[in-house]
Amino acid sequence: MNTPNAELRPILPRVYGAAATGAVLAYGVCLFFSWVKNHRDQACETTDGLCYTWWDVAAIPLTFVTALITLIVVYKQLGIRPRLAVIPPTLLLAPIPLAAAQTSAGWWAATLTGGAWASSLALAVWSRYRILGLSAAAALLIGSLVVLYR
């Protein structure tokens, strides 16, 4: 069937699944970085100079590997293809909107932004919604740059 409602039904759960995955990953990243900061503050309490812990060095690689594995598994289950076109921009550009949301409004804004970012890029997979998905992702990216550099 070529009716618009017939095509809309299978796409919406996939986009909602991508949004939920992005929101959970963003919330997890906020909690993990907060834990790393608290751990560093406790470990470096007696040090006057520059102090790094193992968690400081490993935080970014661990975050990217965890997010990459999670996105691969979830997007495979949701049937979002081609994953090679969706996952790299989701991972590599996501820190910009997440940082803008975190600095301006806290962890809840970063969680919402993570869901919006992941769903907009997942929406760009289908040719019918590609312009809408890429426009939403571009608006989030430009808006976050304005927030960061105003």
Key phrases:
150 residues; 0% strand; 6 helices; mainly alpha
Question: How far apart are the first and last residues' alpha carbons, in Å?
Answer: 49 Å
Q: What's the order of the H and E elements?
A: HHHHHH
- Given the structure, what is the number of helices? 6
Report the strand count: 0
Low-confidence stretches: none
Structural class: mainly alpha
Q: Give a quick account of the main beta sheet: strands, pairing sense, barrel closure.
A: none
Helix proportion range = over 70%
Inertia-based shape: elongated
The gyration radius over C-alpha positions equals 18 Å
User: What multimeric state do the chains show?
Assistant: single chain
Beta-strand content estimate: under 5%
Overall pLDDT level: 91
What do you see in this structure?
- Helices cover 82% and strands 0% of the residues.
- The protein has 150 residues and is mostly helical.
- Helix 4 (95-105) packs across helix 6 (130-148).
- The termini are far apart.
Question: Strands, helices and their partners?
Answer:
Layout: H1 4-43, H2 54-78, H3 83-93, H4 95-105, H5 107-123, H6 130-148
Helix pairs in contact: 1-2, 1-5, 4-5, 4-6, 5-6
Gist?
With 150 residues, this protein is an all-alpha fold. The protein has six helices and no strands.
